[in-house]
Amino acid sequence: MSGRAFDFGSLFAPGPAPAAGRFSGFPRYNFVGGHNDPDAVPVDDLIAAASSVLAREGRTLATYGLQSGPQGYRPLREFICRKVAARGEIQCGPDDILVTSGSLQGLDLVNEVLLQPGDTVLTEQLTYGGALTRLARKGVEVVGIPLDEEGLRVDALRATLEELRRRGVRPKFLYTIPTVQNPTGAIMGLERRRAVLAAAAEYDIAIFEDECYADLVWSGERPPALRALDTDGRVVHIGSFSKSIAPALRTGYVVADWPVMSRLLACKSDGGSAALEQMVLAEFCARHFDAHVETLNQGLQVKLQALVDALGEQFGTAAEFTVPPGGIFLWLTLPAEVDTAALAPKALAEGIAYNPGPEWSTDAAPARHSLRLCFAHPSVEAIRDGVARLAEVCRRETGVPERIANVDRS
Q1: Kind and range of the H or E run holding 159
Q2: Cα–Cα dist 88/225, whole Å
Q3: Cα separation of 81 and 399, whole Å?
Q4: Ordered domains of the chain (ranges, CATH)
Q5: Which residue from 135, 145, 214, 147 is spatially nearest to 172, judged by alpha carbons?
Q6: Stretch among 31-35, 109-113, 188-192 having the lowest mean pLDDT
Q7: Cβ neighbours of 204 (radius 10 Å)
Q8: Which residues contact 229 (CB under 8 A, 6 or more apart)?
Q9: Which DSSP helix (H) or strand (E) runs through 112?
Q10: pLDDT digits 0-9 by tens, 256-311
């Protein structure tokens, strides 16, 4: 707009977040973010749930918090209690649940309540990029703990805690994703979970458990949540409906004891998370959640297999990965010649988007050759075509892979 000369630049508060770019649509081959399968969104059942709950309780939208108070729509909190008990063996009541605007708000609230600049937080060395950016904005020191095929390594955790103790540092908490770890997909076994809790008790630290992907386990079997095994109230637990129902509904939750919950409520000054989404979810989930998740997981397995097959065909042995037992991501490592951050803009110019490994690591160097692919949103055809295009770009720019589609093109 011409004639608008006022300069806000000198007024912006300093901070680590750069200016955002304008949205120009999704790339043709979109392997980024936590998007889910559009064909799996239960549209008809959500329409029916919306009609039913609005006809019955629509007038309660006239008040903040409906008639359930600031912790969220009570029928949804009651369903969450049943869900986390059935799937993660967590025993809790509705007053132990806070409904949030996605699990990201849960992350922000816990960080706000517990952290101040200069604190130390432990995470898995490979972890959720959104958690890392939020911790950076809080000005805390993040210490990454190495993983193996079962997730967080307890020996490395204990060694780190002992070193920090020698330095007189007590971490505020350990942030961990034990069930379908992001980005690796690992599931921590029962004995290791107990060992993590024992280490936390010995060194007197809290645990922040993120289970946003825990409903997406192909077998339907998983160990109890850390929160379920916790005997002294040191675990705060978050979850989400973004991956099991739909990301755009922006509905997550925190499970915490009242001393923490009361502080979270004091900081959650937004008038309550969107009520209509909560009402519709409660109505839908009470009738359809388990059947829907089973169908969703079957479809995700088909897409994962398409991705695995395409990588084998196009990259061969140049692509190293472990097939995850659930979730929506595949963590992939390429040879040393490939810098995935440098390759990303070249791929994007060809319509291919992926998450470079350094964005998901506390230490950029070891993840330099890795990338995260989300297989949930693209169609099977787009997965195949996208991987083929990615292989072509990668070979052109780096020489990797030497062979594509089992044909020597040199």
Answers
A1: helix 154-166
A2: 5
A3: 52
A4: 25-41+291-408 (3.90.1150.10), 43-288 (3.40.640.10)
A5: 135
A6: 31-35
A7: 11
A8: 193, 194, 197
A9: helix 102-114
A10: 999 999 999 999 999 889 899 999 999 999 999 999 999 999 999 999 999 999 99
